[in-house]
Amino acid sequence: MNRISQIFLRPGFSGQLAAATRAQRCWYSADAAAPPAAAVDKATLEKLVRTNKVVVFMKGNPQAPRCGFSNAVVQIMRMHGVQYDAHDVLQNEALRQGIKDYTDWPTIPQVFINGEFVGGCDILLQMHQSGDLIEELQKAGIISELLKAQQAKDEQDAKNQK
Amino acid sequence: MFGVSFRHLARVSGRNVNEQLRISGISTSKYCQANMSQQVEYPIESAMRQALTTELKPVFLDITNESPMHNTPKKAESHFRVLVVSDKFNDLTLIKRHRLVNDTIKKALEAAGFEFMHALSIEAKTPKQWEPEQAPEKSPPCLGGFGK
């Protein structure tokens, strides 16, 4: 008997297959009325948001964001040269629900600086535009690349004036 | 070789037509809202508008249904952008303003029997921070994560 049919004949295989299809289905219909997965609890999230100075909950990952708003956050972080932990909520429905409950904030992405919830894409974008983000990062001990570039330019200008 | 490039062109122009349809879809939705009294074609948008108007007494309010930008059925109400200009924001931090808008909408939708929408982008300004000619910001394009 060849290997494939052996696998099919193995007891319990059909059960595994059914479970796998079920899991798949849940994953794809995360937004529909799928039975809600138990949300990740508060204590776990409290630790998770402090694993790095900046922690981002997003759709997709920084290399391949799956949502325009998440992508905007990634691009802003890149401009400021920030190293951060990113969590893909599309891979984990319990995390997706957990983080929304934790912050009482209905949408993704969500950004944490020093363990504190800062906001979503719109807020981060406005903070970036107003310069507040540079300050917030500084409070967390992160010097933004944009600030460094500005300082370098100022120094250069001062030298040129002499 | 030519066949391929023509087909390619056709596909591109087909996409343009879709693009135009989408844009007109957005404007139709706005038009319908102006004539709300006749029929509630966009119940979520209408509930949002009503709640934001009564709760926040905005100097200016713009609601855009951006669902057609995403992979959604016709007349979907999943993605929204709001620009609210209100005195109520005067002493509030950015995050508190957003929470106020979120909560107002959440309560109104709950009362009307709807779940919170999939995506809501908020601009919350005080009258001082806003000029009447200022258009709302634009949302980034969809990257395909919706419905996943």
Topology:
The complex is a heterodimer of chains A (162) and B (148).
Chain A: H1 3-9, H2 13-28, H3 42-48, E1 54-58, E2 60-61, E3 64-65, H4 68-79, E4 85-88, H5 93-103, E5 110-113, E6 116-119, H6 121-130, H7 132-139, H8 145-161
Parallel strand pairs in A: 1-4
Antiparallel strand pairs in A: 1-5, 2-3, 5-6
Helix pairs in contact in A: 4-6
Chain B: H1 2-34, H2 43-56, E1 60-65, E2 79-85, H3 94-111, E3 119-125
Parallel strand pairs in B: 2-3
Antiparallel strand pairs in B: 1-2
Keyword list:
heterodimer, A: 162 residues, alpha+beta, Glutaredoxin, 2 domains, two-stranded antiparallel ribbon, B: 148 residues, 3-stranded mixed β-sheet, 3 strands, 44% helix, globular, Thioredoxin-like_sf (chain A), iron (chain A)
Please provide a written account of the structure.
The complex is a heterodimer of chains A (162) and B (148). With 162 residues, chain A is an alpha+beta fold. Chain A has two domains: 3-32; 36-161, Glutaredoxin. A four-stranded mixed sheet of chain A has the order 4-1-5-6, sandwiched between helices. In chain A, strands 2-3 form a two-stranded antiparallel ribbon. In chain A, strand 2 and strand 3 form a beta hairpin. Helices cover 54% and strands 13% of the residues of chain A. Chain A starts with a helix and ends with a helix. With 148 residues, chain B is α+β, with helices and mostly antiparallel strands. In chain B, strands 1-2-3 form a three-stranded mixed sheet. In chain B, helix 2 (43-56) packs across helix 3. The termini of chain B are far apart. The chains are: A alpha+beta (162), B alpha+beta (148). The A-B interface holds A 27-28, 30-31, 59-60, 65-72, 90, 104-107, 117-123, 125-127 and B 94-95, 98-99, 102, 106, 116, 118-123, 137, 139-148.
Largest sheet of chain A: 4 strands, mixed
The H/E string of chain B reads: HHEEHE
Please compute the radius of gyration of chain B using only Cα atoms: 18 Å
> Which CATH C-level class of the largest domain in chain A is it?
Alpha Beta
Proportion of residues in β-strands of chain A: 5-15%
Number of helices of chain B: 3
Q: Please outline the major beta sheet of chain B.
A: 3 strands, mixed
Q: Please, what is the average pLDDT of chain A?
A: 84
Q: How far is it from the N-terminal to the C-terminal residue of chain B, by CA?
A: 37 Å
**Low-confidence spans of chain B:** 1-38
Indicate the structural class of chain A: alpha+beta
The main sheet of chain B orders its strands as: 1-2-3
Q: How would you classify the quaternary structure?
A: heterodimer
Q: Kindly estimate the percentage of residues of chain B that lie in beta strands according to DSSP.
A: 5-15%
Output the helix-strand order of chain A: HHHEEEHEHEEHHH
Q: Based on Cα principal axes, name the global outline of chain A.
A: elongated
Shape-level CATH architecture of the largest domain in chain A = 3-Layer(aba) Sandwich
Average pLDDT figure of chain B: 79
GO cellular component, one term (chain A): mitochondrial matrix
Domain Glutaredoxin (chain A): 54-118
Organism (chain A): Drosophila rubida
GO molecular function (chain A): 2 iron, 2 sulfur cluster binding; metal ion binding
